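Take a look at this chain, tokens included, and explain the fold to me:
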Amino acid sequence: MTELAHEATCLVCRARAHAPRRLAQGLALFAAGLCVTSGILDLRPAQRAHTRAAATPVIEAAPAAEAKRGAVAHQVFAQNAATARAHDAAALQVERDAALGVDRSLLLASPGGVIATAARVAQWRPLVVRAARGTEVDPNLLEAVVFVESSGRGDVTGGSAVGLTQLHPSAARRLGLHVDLRRSNKLTRQIFHTWSHAHAKQLRRWRARYDQRYAPAHELRATASYLDSARETLGRTDLAVESYHVGVKTLREVHVPFAELYLRSAATDDYYFRVLAAKRVMHLWRANRNALRFELAQQVRKNSSEEYMHPLSQTHRFATPNAILRAYGHALRAIPMDTPHTHIAISGTLGAEARKLGRSRRLYRGLRPPTLDVLLYIGRRVHELSGSRRGLLLTSAVRDNRYQRTLMRVNANAARSYSMHTTGYAFDIARSYSSPRQARAFQFVLERLSAVNAITYIRESGAIHIAVSSDGSAKLRLIRALGG
């Protein structure tokens, strides 16, 4: 009992000792409550700051940066894909233009004429279709190769090349054909000297056994196999066809369309474009022979295809000096007199006959807009390729019929009937160059523009006469899109 009383006394003593401190804590809490209630103390900003810090941790910055890099990469990929599509579309349009501009040599140099050549090629059509079966080769393309290589003559020879597709002995053996040159040449000599048609026919059958290049079915199958293998190796049909002329090794590292390669470099020739032109000729021969005959007639009128490009019945000509004067500002544009920038120098003889008509020479320093664009492109491109300080010399531009008749009295090269100069679509460049390098660059540019049917030209004694298509500006845009 005594112990209990003692403990109670101790508790009372401790309570008395702690009472002042507890009283002070209670008063402090009461004062803080009054401050919050009255608005003197606001704890909400600190609470919001703490909430923001908790809601946006630092580790979220890394995913945001990663997303930004992904968006940039996606944009670059889309731009590259769009550029590739634009290149392919431009290359396809260039190929169509090249096929539409029927190769003049293809029409005029075909043995017996283009109609007879197309008929000879067409007789091999069943064998062509059979040879292309089981491959990715278009029979029309294989037929066009026959047109270009042999003009449909199965036993024609060109050096060591033989047959419809002109295979060389080594290439034929690699493609699995049997070639015994000793026996083949011996039989060829016997065929040449025999007078008997039946004997010659028998000798040809024997020769085809020893040299299968003389067996059309075997050679066509070998050629189709080559084109199919080249297409698989190079990844493109256009490059595969070109490789038939220049070899797969030359094009192995090429990853652009043939049109772009041809316009940008001299690594290849226009073989693929000639095959496309032959393909179009065969299509016309089957579908519309009258159109093919009309094109042939237009091609033979002059030494170039300018009248096919601008037929007389469909092309406006300037009759008088006043007609030229009225055309400036819309149908005609003045040629810039700024050689350091255009790299085109104006000859002192340009418009020399104007004084006889009571006119200024400056009246005849103009061209149609697409023609002027092509002229300026030639000047700039030749300068880029050659680095020549002296520009090309322009000797003739637009004329009218009256000027042309006056010129005929003093210039033997002046056209006596339909002059392309009177349309504003033609000009002449003097064959006077500052260096052989400039001459080669000029020829390179002419060949490229001609291949895409932007121009056609005639090599005269003192000048190059160039006629430009009415859509020359559009074709220049295609060439620029392909880096040419």
About this structure: The longest helix spans residues 61-100. Residues 1-9, 46-56 have pLDDT under 50 and may be disordered. DSSP finds 23 helices and nine strands in the chain. The first strand starts at residue 157 and ends at 158.
